[in-house]
Design goal:
about 500 residues; mainly alpha; 22 helices; globular
């Protein structure tokens, strides 16, 4: 687990730098210089291609996670990279034909509430293409235990690019069309960097080589993809359908408010992304060797560490939520997203408590189970949004997501426990959960509201410092996690004032 902690910390540093840039963009720059309809448009211009890219790649990135180790030989991939780059291109061409043919259907979905989106539909195809190959190269690098560069491009480079684009728009150097064009260019540039970096580290071997592609292996990979695609598609529908349905049912203004609140809520899951990405190659190896003890260790430690990290971030957000929202331009409008933040934050926290259950199923012989309940849950998610959005608007979309993520992860946990004999929970989780409940109850009794920006920032800083110190004390006092305690003690030993 040491390699997971070390690489996760390095990746988290990059991610949190990106979170800082994203926070400036989403919480201040976008609300200040863009109107709500423009913010909603830019959100959908990204969300729609991202959803479609997971369909068009036809499981290529997941193939890399599961099967790359079978073909890897030093820096050689024995034709594997050629495979995962070539066949998704066929999927994209077929999709492009269907997308163009059904353009009028898409237009009818968004015409009433988000008509401006129709003017920018031509940008969806190139964005889908670039995102598709970005996902594939990220998975290929991840399979080679290399995630820093792809994380930097996704978390830092793209967000800095968006910062510059909005500033150019504010200075009247570009118009809305130019802003969307530059969004497309940013993803094209990110893909180019990934290709060049892969070449630099001598992993860009795209020569076709079918030596290791025997009949049984091709059959195994084909069956895996056929079973995987519906599961991946369902997962993406569950995670993206909320903003897409809000755009068609409520309009781009509500998408803007929802996207800001959603961004704040998803900050909770940042450690999960790092831990899960690093765990995937280790989990893949353990699954191939049928090392149940190793899988159990990865599962429990991931869940405990992710819950601890997620709980701290959730508390820091929720106890400061009113103060944070008051600092945002157009605060009165964006404050309507307060309970979206709560629901999204809780959904991510539950997801972190069950950690890598989906990955365990994916790498096991029971990966077919992913299909049934993910398809069912994607249908339930669409249905829940149809029910809750007209009643509760943006809060309804967030509530639907929360309920479905809880249900999905309960089902995954049951499958893993029943079929593999491992489960994520441990008694030490109780300390973390009780701490979270007590902190929320304590701060719910406090009703102090600062009346200046400087005082608001001071209140946020003091509350956060108090919670942080108290949380570290609880973790160390009860030795909630040996890995966390060892990491903290190592960090403290480097601080001159804390050295013995």
């Amino acid at each position: 687990m040491g390699i997971i902690i070390k690489q996760s910390i390095n990746n988290s540093i990059i991610t949190y730098i990106g979170i800082g840039i994203g926070a400036i963009n989403v919480l201040w720059l976008f609300p200040k210089y863009l109107n709500l309809e423009e913010i909603g448009l830019l959100r959908l211009i990204i969300d729609i291609p991202m959803l479609l890219a997971f369909f068009t790649q036809i499981g290529a990135s997941s193939l890399s996670d599961r099967f790359y180790s079978h073909f890897k030989d030093g820096n050689k991939n024995n034709g594997f990279l050629f495979l995962i780059l070539f066949y998704p291109l066929i999927g994209f061409i077929l999709f492009a034909i269907g997308f163009i043919a059904l353009k009028s259907v898409w237009a009818n979905i968004y015409m009433e509430k988000s008509a401006i989106l129709i003017d920018y539909f031509n940008f969806i195809l190139p964005l889908t293409f670039f995102m598709m190959y970005i996902f594939i190269f990220e998975a290929y690098l991840r399979a080679n235990f290399n995630i820093s560069v792809s994380s930097f491009l996704r978390e830092v480079f793209l967000r800095l690019f968006f910062t510059v684009v909005v500033i150019l728009y504010h200075m009247n150097l570009i118009n809305l069309d130019g802003m969307v064009y530059l969004y497309v260019i940013s993803y094209a540039t990110s893909l180019l960097f990934l290709v060049l970096y892969t070449k630099k580290i001598n992993l860009l071997d795209v020569r076709p080589d079918f030596t290791l592609f025997n009949k049984s292996k091709v059959k195994e990979m084909g069956i895996y993809v056929l079973y995987l695609i519906p599961g991946v598609a369902g997962t993406m529908i569950i995670s993206k359908i909320d903003s897409l349905m809000l755009g068609s049912m409520e309009g781009l203004t509500n998408v803007a408010v929802y996207s800001l609140a959603f961004f704040i809520g998803t900050v909770v899951e940042v450690p999960r992304k790092s831990l899960s990405m690093i765990s995937i190659p280790l989990l893949s190896t353990a699954s191939q060797e049928n090392d149940v003890a190793k899988i159990d260790e990865l599962y429990k430690k991931n869940s405990l560490i992710q819950l601890a990290a997620g709980m701290l971030i959730f508390l820091l957000i929720w106890i400061n939520v009113d103060d944070l929202l008051s600092l945002i331009p157009k605060a009165e409008t964006f404050s309507e997203g307060k309970y979206v933040i709560l629901f999204i934050g809780l959904s991510k926290l539950f997801e972190m408590a069950t950690s890598i259950n989906g990955e365990i199923i994916q790498f096991s012989k029971y990966y077919r189970y992913n299909i049934g309940f993910v398809i069912a849950l994607s249908i339930l998610t669409v249905g829940a949004n149809f029910i809750f959005i007209p009643i509760f608007s943006i809060n309804g979309a967030a509530l639907a997501l929360l309920l479905n993520i809880i249900l999905m992860n309960i089902l995954k946990t049951i499958v893993v426990w029943n079929k593999i004999g491992v489960q994520p929970f441990s008694g030490k989780m109780i300390h973390i959960i009780l701490f979270g409940i007590l902190v929320c109850l304590l701060f719910s009794l406090l009703n102090y509201k600062a009346d200046t920006i400087l005082l608001t920032l001071l209140v946020i800083a003091l509350k956060s410092l108090f919670i942080g110190i108290l949380f570290v004390f609880v973790l160390l006092k009860f030795n909630v996690s040996d890995d966390i305690s060892a990491t903290m003690q190592k960090m403290f030993s480097k601080i001159p004032l804390l050295k013995k």
